[in-house]
Amino acid sequence: MNDAELLALDATRLARLIAARDLSCRELMQATLARIDAFNPRFNALVSLRDADALRAEADARDAQLARGKRLGWMHGFPLAVKDLSHAAGLPTSMGSPLAPTSPARHDSLHVARARAAGAIVIGKSNTPEFGLGSHTYNTVFGTTRNAWDDSKSAGGSSGGAAVALALGMLPVADGSDMMGSLRNPAAFNNVIGFRPSRGRVPGSPDEDLFFNQLSTEGPMARTVEDAARLLCVQAGADRRVPLSLTDALPDADELDLAVDVRGLRIGWLGSLWPDLPVDPAVMATCEQALGVFRDMGCDVDACRLDVPREQNWQAWLRLRQLLVGGKLGTLTADPRHRARIKPEALWEIDQARNLDAASLYQASAWRSNVYRAFARLFERFDAVVAPTAQVFPFDAERHWPDEVAGVKSQTYHHWMEIVTPFTLAGLPTLNVRAGFGPQGLPMGLQLAGPANADLAVLQLGHAYDQACPWSRWHAPVLGQV
């Protein structure tokens, strides 16, 4: 097969071909590097790329291992670009900030170490907004990542580089992370898959805060739900150094089987979550049309509502995010000269955090608990719930963020992503699946969520949907040029 055919294969197929030695790791690496050379200068998805000769040599070493009968795991020979918020030994972790150290990381983040142990070859990093803040991938270190379907539009974020690299065949699978939709929003904007796992499914860093940081998590991205699920099996698993990590084990990545009968499953359509939450009418129309796929699969789809006040959810979100972001980044402003080199959105989070007190944080946690209980009541009636992944379609890449949604002014830099926040606050496994395309030919996604810790059930339903929906077979227009 030629390079275009090879890079169009899903990761599950690639892994089987490599394991059978019907495809060499060298061939996959060479095709990947050629694709990066062709598209990355235009779309700016991958950064801090390693030397090509060194990568080919590592691919040869993986082939030599196979020749000796040694296969490291499901990702044997896979090129992997680590999101530039996580550490990959030997590469700098810029976090999109000019203040970040330029020296190479000395160790891998936990999920990166697990990918390497499964055979992945780290080729570089994927671009991210400064400190991962904002669902639009731009920074002053590497510049703007552009949408795979229209390079004048935003790629979303903060895993924007990963999503674009997947959509353009520069990676077979990708890691990402998600606090405010960062695995979900860029997946929706680029017509790929992103999965935010249950809190604790993929353990965070054992060297950072172990207890307060319960909003952000690493997770998988891919071009199919099956591939994302297999990558999750590599990333997941308890670690005794991370006390809140989940102890129930997922199947081995090679053994995973997502096939189930989904007929009769009850799906709750949340719509805009609250009647006054602004959503682009074309987004709503696109997502409502996508519900027909569930019905065609034999699922029962009924409208429902999230029975918790919108303001409680939003205030809980603001306070808890400010606690975490301000706590982590606040020391950067100890030197007044640094303020001028930090983007305004990060400074706002830091400054707001300084106004928090114990009583307001306790109230935020109580409100967050109400959000969880509201979902728990829904899951007494439904097996899963769905809602749009974003409130707007991909916007002009030169804008920092949408200042209004459906005619309603945004009050903060991240207000336009409010629709993802209750799923994060509740710690639910939430999968972005494809919802189709809007009037301008730009992609949108659906958030598909299930009860806490029901990751496999969500992925099984998402896999059935992914196979049934037509948009999984749509490819970015630029790929027609290769």
Q: What is the element layout, followed by pairings?
A:
Layout: H1 3-7, H2 11-19, H3 25-43, E1 46-47, H4 52-67, E2 79-83, H5 110-117, E3 121-126, E4 138-139, E5 143-144, H6 160-167, E6 173-178, H7 185-190, E7 193-196, E8 217-222, H8 225-235, E9 266-269, H9 281-296, E10 300-303, H10 310-329, H11 336-339, H12 344-353, H13 358-378, E11 384-388, E12 404-405, E13 408-409, H14 421-426, E14 430-437, E15 443-449, H15 455-468
Parallel strand pairs: 2-3, 9-10, 9-11
Antiparallel strand pairs: 1-3, 4-5, 6-8, 7-8, 7-14, 11-15, 12-13, 14-15
Helix pairs in contact: 3-4, 10-12, 10-13
The mean pLDDT is: 97
Largest sheet: 8 strands, mixed
Q: In which order are the strands of the major sheet placed? A: 6-8-7-14-15-11-9-10
Radius of gyration: 21 Å
Strand content: 5-15%
Point out poorly predicted stretches.
none
Helical fraction equals: 25-40%
So how many helices?
Answer: 15
Instruction: Please give the oligomerization state of what you see.
Output: single chain
Global shape = globular
Euclidean distance between termini CA atoms: 14 Å
Task: Please tell me about this protein's structure.
The chain is an alpha+beta fold. It is built from 15 helices and 15 strands. The chain has helices at 3-7, 11-19, 25-43, 52-67, 110-117, 160-167, 185-190, 225-235, 281-296, 310-329, 336-339, 344-353, 358-378, 421-426, 455-468, and strands at 46-47, 79-83, 121-126, 138-139, 143-144, 173-178, 193-196, 217-222, 266-269, 300-303, 384-388, 404-405, 408-409, 430-437, 443-449. The strands form four sheets. It has an eight-stranded mixed β-sheet with strand order 6-8-7-14-15-11-9-10, sandwiched between helices. A three-stranded mixed β-sheet has the order 1-3-2. Helix 3 packs antiparallel against helix 4, helix 10 crosses helix 12 (344-353) and helix 10 (310-329) crosses helix 13. The longest helix has 21 residues, at 358-378. The mean pLDDT is 97.
